[in-house]
Amino acid sequence: MYGCHWPLPANVRIAMTQRHGGVSQPPFDSLNLGLHVGDDPASVQANRALLAKRLALPCEPAWLKQVHGTEVVDLARDPLRIADGSYSDSKAHVAVVMTADCLPVLLCDSAGTQVAALHAGWRGLCDGVIEAGIARFRPGSELIACLGPAIGKTAFEVGGEVRAAFCDKDPGADDCFVAKGDKFLGDLQGLARLRLQQAGVRRVYALDVCTYNNKDYFSYRRDGRTGRMASLIWLTD
C-alpha cells in the first residue's frame, strides 16, 4: 500500500493499494476491495475495514458503482453513486475509485481545499472523464494530478478503433500508440497526461507501475477473474 510521497498540500492525503495484506482467498487474494467481482462479501467488507484502520480514514470511503463513463459526482450534493469519479471540498468525505488495469487519476487544488478521484479506463478517458472531473473544481483553481498504477504501454494492446477514437478527438494522441502487427500498444498514462496538459494542469505525478506485468497488483487483462485495488484522496486538518 502506497501513501505516495509527492509534494502535495499538507492537508491532502492519498493512498493507492496493492493486492497484499487482506483476507480474500484466491483468485481474489488478498486485499480485494471490490464487491462486484464475485468475492465473498464478508471478506471484502473485512478488507475495507482493514484499509480504513491502516489509513486512519476519517470516514467510510465513498465507494462508487463504476460504469466506464464520465459522470463525476459531488459527494456533498449527489446521493447517487453510479459514476466514474467523485469530488469533495469537505473533510467529511473520502473519494475513491477501484481499478485492476484502468488508470486511477487523483486530483487536488494547490490550496488543499478540493479533491477528486477518477476512474479512467480507455472509454472514460477518451470520452472526457478527466475533463468532467476538472469541471467540478472551482474556476481558477490550480490543480495537481496523481496517476496511479495501471496497465503499462508495453502491455496495453488495443485495436485500431481505440486509437482512432482518441485521434479523432486529438491528432496528438497518435504519439501515445505504437503499432504491433495489426494492433497497437497504447499508453494510458501518456493519454491522461495529454488531456491534463490540454486542460492546463501542469503538475502531474505518476506511479511507474504496470499492473499487467507486476503480480503485486490485480490485473483484469492478465487474470480475468480477480480483485480490485483502490486509490483514495481526502482532506485533513
From TrEMBL:
Q: Does the keyword Zinc apply?
A: yes
GO function term, MF aspect, one: S-methyl-5-thioadenosine phosphorylase activity
- UniProt KW keywords: Hydrolase, Metal-binding, Transferase, Zinc
Under the heading SUPFAM superfamilies, the entry gives:
CNF1/YfiH-like putative cysteine hydrolases
- Which CDD domains does the record match to this protein? YfiH
- Domain of life here? Bacteria
Q: Which reaction does it catalyse?
A: inosine + phosphate = alpha-D-ribose 1-phosphate + hypoxanthine; S-methyl-5'-thioadenosine + phosphate = 5-(methylsulfanyl)-alpha-D-ribose 1-phosphate + adenine; adenosine + phosphate = alpha-D-ribose 1-phosphate + adenine; adenosine + H2O + H(+) = inosine + NH4(+)
Q: Does the keyword Cell membrane apply?
A: no
NCBIfam families cross-referenced by the UniProt entry: peptidoglycan editing factor PgeF
Q: What is stated as this protein's family in its record?
A: Belongs to the purine nucleoside phosphorylase YfiH/LACC1 family.
Q: What is this protein called?
A: Purine nucleoside phosphorylase
Q: Which organism is it from?
A: Shewanella algae
